[in-house]
Design brief:
Elements (H helix, E strand, L loop, with lengths): L28 H12 L5 H18 L7 E4 L4 H12 L4 E7 L5 H14 L2 E6 L2 H14 L6 H17 L4 E4 L3 H4 L14 H10 L13 H10 L3 E4 L8 H12 L12 H15 L4 H10 L5 H8 L7 H15 L3 H9 L12 H15 L6
Parallel strand pairs: 1-2, 2-3, 4-5
Helix pairs in contact: 3-10, 5-8, 11-14, 12-13
Bound molecules: zinc ion.
């Protein structure tokens, strides 16, 4: 990397995002893109926003008439999905909460999910993943030195949501995905296509000969089939509201016995170890920059708060990191030397393995022509 280091004067994105550009005032291209996107969001006008929300809720209710549930809401124990569940119930919807347990959930996350569904009176479906198979796939992803190990969780989680929707004849999956806290796009190379089942299969096969047996994977075509043939829509539900994370957290804590995490997505022990240790050390990626920059761009925190947020260890303490490291080593059956060896090896691209990326690009193009909607990347 010959490029001089630079950080945006408005947010905290920096030159670790390979395609970042800066204007004369030092404002980055991520800020500018986010501004343009924000301007297109309907929720800036409160009257129109209300009307759109009412219309949408009616559609969901109509589609679920005489059915046990009218929507599926995937819950991870995180704020975004918890808030989506609360809002849905407040609006009179009848969700089935769906959760995927991959063996890495923190106790706090389990506690948060249990409290939430109990106090809301919502049914919970938990898919417990076959740990031996999952561990084998994780090991294969580590051996392959590809960046997005969380592809395994995200892919299976989406598969579980779509399958539950299909099983109950439900047409809407309301997700905690949203522009207010996640609207800045991922820099290239910071994650991978989440519907890339072929990538999972190939990496599993080439490293350790792991076959997908019970793992609930979803491919690009599987996604297209659920959306276009089964007419199941994945909706970024929180975009219907002016979503403020801090306000949501306060309500969750006060009314639902929710307990907060020190950082975003820290509900899973692997996710926090991956984001707090593996990603920055092995891949030079600090996702906190993106999370905090989005919060700055959407006016939820100041830049100096964000700068504070990205300083130091991405862990509450050195001891907490050590504790997670020990947990990780034990659960994966690794020695400390194996972990060091893994961190030291260079990254390999997901594209060195069979991939659905080219197919996905064609599908997105087709989908946009058909619906004019922004497909999720
Ligand atoms: Zn910026």
């Amino acid at each position: 990397m010959s490029r001089p280091y630079q950080v945006c004067t408005r947010c905290v994105m920096d030159t670790t995002a390979s395609d970042i550009r800066f204007d004369a005032a030092g404002v980055c291209s991520y800020c500018i893109e986010f501004e343009q996107k924000k301007a297109q969001l309907v929720h800036r006008d409160p009257v129109e926003r209300e009307a759109r929300l009412r219309q949408f809720v009616e559609r969901v209710k109509r589609s679920g008439r005489r059915k046990r549930y009218d929507c599926i809401i995937g819950v991870s124990g995180g704020v975004d999905s918890s808030w989506a569940l609360v809002k849905a119930v407040q609006l009179g919807l009848r969700p089935l909460a769906a959760h995927m347990d991959n063996g890495w959930n923190s106790e706090l996350a389990q506690h948060n999910i249990a409290n939430l569904v109990r106090s809301l009176g919502v049914d919970l479906y938990t898919h417990v993943i076959n740990w031996e198979e999952y561990r084998g796939l994780m090991q294969a992803f580590f051996d392959a030195d590809v960046l997005d190990v969380e592809l395994l969780y995200d892919n299976a989680m989406m598969a579980v949501n779509y399958r539950q929707a299909a099983a109950h004849g439900v047409h809407f999956i309301l997700a905690g995905t949203n522009q207010a806290t996640e609207g800045m796009r991922f820099p290239p190379g910071w994650n991978w296509l989440k519907f890339d089942k072929r990538n999972i299969v190939d990496i599993g096969r080439r490293f350790g000969g792991v076959r997908l047996d019970t793992f609930p994977a979803i491919s690009s075509l599987g996604f297209a089939w659920f959306e276009l043939v089964r007419r199941i829509r994945w909706v970024s539900f929180l975009d219907f509201f002016p979503y403020n994370k801090e306000e949501a957290l306060t309500v969750l804590e006060t009314d639902y016995g929710y307990r907060r995490y020190p950082f975003k997505h820290y509900e899973s022990i692997f996710t926090r170890f991956y984001q707090g240790y593996i990603l920055p050390r092995k891949f030079g990626v600090d996702k906190r920059r993106l999370h905090f920059s989005t919060l700055v761009a959407s006016g939820q925190i100041t830049r100096s708060e964000a700068l504070q947020g990205v300083t130091g260890l991405p862990y509450p303490s050195e001891a907490a990191l050590e504790q997670d490291k020990r947990y990780f080593l034990k659960k994966m059956g690794w020695t400390a030397a194996q972990l060091d060896g893994y961190i030291a090896r260079p990254e390999r691209s997901h594209l060195e393995f069979a991939s659905e990326q080219p197919l996905w690009d064609r599908l997105v193009c087709f989908y946009r022509q058909l619906f004019g909607e922004r497909a999720r990347a």
